[in-house]
Design goal:
The protein is an alpha+beta fold. It is built from six helices and six strands. The protein folds into three domains: 29 residues, no CATH class; 45 residues, Wheat Germ Agglutinin (Isolectin 2), domain 1 (2-Layer Sandwich); 112 residues, Herpes Virus-1 (2-Layer Sandwich).
Amino acid sequence: MMRSSRGFCPMHYERSRTGKDLLAPHKPRRHPKSAGTEMHCRICGLTKPICDFYPHPRNYKRSCISCAKQRLRDARYSMAGKATTLYHSSRARARQYGVTHDITKGWVAEQLQKGHCALTGLPFFYGQNDTLATAHPMSPSIDRIQPGGSYTMQNCRMVVTAVNVALNDWGEDTFSQIATAYVLKNQHGVVP
């Protein structure tokens, strides 16, 4: 911890400068194992410089930054992680749009267990997209059957993201017309 010329840490120095109540100066608490310049990562088993670990108020995290990030990635892109993400995002959108929400995490997990899109039958992709800017087109997404309707189990289904984007404003009827026309033109050479 950095100390000022008066012997206080920056937080306490700021408090003394602004006239607010001054707390006694404190020393940073360190675990005996992290007193040196290197630490042992409990996940990868490597000894790394202490700067490769996230700081913690009393010590440093016991896993290195790269292992911690990998654990988060693995959790996010697993089926359980995807179910949690989809549940929370649907709940936030329901609050944002002022509609009811009765979907449960169990319902989302049950839909994901099926493993395929309810509308097209395409399999879901749970991994990370090559470009982090957008979702993978085959990742699962909650679609409302009636656009603008509530997030209820009767009005929602699990589809791939590409289909959900296509259904966004106009619904299944418009999507069906466009998909049928596409198949007729490209596979049979017939213009509808």
